[in-house]
Amino acid sequence: MLFAQTKPVQGVVIDKETKQRLAKVYIYNTRSGDGLYNTTKGEFSTFAIPGDTLVAALGGYGVDTVIFKGQSAAYFQLKPLGIRLRDVLIQQKRLTPQQQYEKSVKEFRYATQRGSSKDLLNFGNGGVGLGIDAIYNLLSRQGKNARHLQKILEKDYREDLIDYRFTANLVQQILGIKEPEITDFMQQYRPTYQFVLEATDYSFNMFVRNAYKSYRANPQALRLPQLPQLTIDKL
Fold it and tell me: Which residues of the chain form beta strands (DSSP E)?
């Protein structure tokens, strides 16, 4: 009966802000545990039954979900995590990186727990033994897909933490520059997650100043090529 209800579903993933197609997006079915990457054109094809929850996850973007109701196409729009709010009062209401990470993990707790190695050892009257559920989670396809989703959530948390400290307002205060130079500089000289965790305010200030000296010497040294504009065709 389950096989009879299974239906093919095609879809596309785009950036919610730029409307460009996104590649290397991980599409995950929380019921079946099946996961796959979409194509370089932003498209994907999978199977689902009505009621399935499909998740689209990509590093640097918020997770998007679609409830499959039998439609032939699914449409994901991922919002970049690096968008900064101009209004300071509104920005203060934004979740901290830790709060956002905990929120995402809570939303997909069932899926991520399937890839957990917790309780690998069972302690009982007969001594220590291997937990069957934990072994299954580690070796099964569902467990591997769940761990992959967990890694994406953790990567998003790290990128969000960098954005939380490395802000346009801070760069403007230190360097006194304006847009579009601020955005171009920040895209090319983004600090690492480990540095953001360990750096004092003074060392962070010096990083920005030294990076800006390198930027001024060659503004195009680390600039990424502009992505081509893609139109969304009917599937």
Answer: 7-15, 26-29, 35-37, 43-48, 53-57, 64-67, 73-78, 121-124, 127-130
- Rounded CA separation 96/26 (Å): 24
Task: Give the pLDDT confidence of 123-133 residue by residue, as tens digits.
Answer: 444 443 434 44
The answer for residues whose C-beta is within 8 angstroms of residue 160's C-beta and 6 or more apart is: 81, 97, 100, 101
CB 41 within 8 A of CB 232: no
Question: pTM of whole model > 0.70?
Answer: no
Q: Which amino acid would we find at residue 227?
A: L
The 8-class DSSP code of residue 96 comes to P
φ, ψ at 28 (rounded to 5°): -130, 130
- Cα separation of the two ends of the chain: 28
Helix (H) or strand (E) holding 209: helix 201-217
| Closest C-alpha among 85, 100, 93 to residue 168 | 85
d(CA 65, CA 110): 15
Backbone Cα Rg of the chain? 22
> How confident is the model over 199-235, as pLDDT tens digits?
888 999 999 999 999 999 998 888 766 655 555 555 5
Measured CA distances, 180 to 32, 121, 174, 177, 191 (Å): 46, 55, 16, 9, 19
